[in-house]
Amino acid sequence: xxxxxxxxxxxxxxxxxxxxxxxxxxxxxxxxxxxxxxxxxxxxxxxxxxxxxxxxxxxxxxxxxxxxxxxxxxxxxxxxxxxxxxxxxxxxxxxxxxxxxxxxxxxxxxxxxxxxxxxxxxxxxxxxxxxxxxxxxxxxxxxxxxxxxxxxxxxxxxxxxxxxxxxxxxxxxxxxxxxxxxxxxxxxxxxxxx
Length: 194
Fold this sequence. Notes:
FMN binding; Split_barrel_FMN-bd; Pnp Oxidase, Chain A; oxidoreductase activity, acting on the CH-NH group of donors, NAD or NADP as acceptor; Flavin reductase (DIM6/NTAB) family NADH-FMN oxidoreductase RutF; mainly beta; 7-stranded antiparallel β-sheet
């Protein structure tokens, strides 16, 4: 099968999300004039080491985007298997001003380097200052870039001096309504320079 996105795919469901998978989930928390907000984004990733930077894309006008445009900050919370139901609950289309932390029963804590809430029991949280919001092609497609200014690591996720993803089993987004749990890790060394 081959298709041009501009012509449509002819399938019952768009395959694009399922092709680019698995994708990490950025559980983005913000604070704005209408209150605190928490929403999952599966177009999320780390993009640079020094200084550490992340990105996520919003494919509609959401409260998170409005809040971070005004505040200039956001926090990325890493989703573990134990939080899957709560993460999913925060994806509901709540009315503006609803505190998704409260609605979904998510533990809330304050960030240290920015004025923003974070998921208190997340395996890791990345406090970020917005460096750029890029309007992408299409209607309401936006890329948010941020510099990480503070990092929270849950103590039980540190093993032998490493942040160990097997300690909490991270969630990943596949396509459609599908998710994956990371349960097996394979370690590879890079080949020597030739």
